[in-house]
Amino acid sequence: MTSTPNNASTRSSVFEVVRTQLARVCREHRRDFDAEIHLESSLIADLGLDSLSLVEAVVALEQAFGIERLPLEALSEGSDEAYFTVGSLVDLCMRHTAVGIAVDEGMRT
Asked: Per the database record, which ranges form the Carrier domain (predicted)?
């Protein structure tokens, strides 16, 4: 799939919502959390999410984007933890929502 300016802009907007929600969840679990969150950041190795905090982050994203259910198993389509990245979570959100409307709602929360 070729990235168009509109698609890149949408992905950037979705990333901002995902980054905000991940940072909030990470700070709730570790008050000293100050890591930079990038698309290539590992949810487990870089952000230190465990199974509980990962579920909390997914629920927050479902609410922010108005998604009924984000299938976490789609993040682990391979057996490698490399699939558990912020970028893969952004892509998952984009596939399961009407992004144009959801991004506006997610930015207001």
From this structure: 12-97
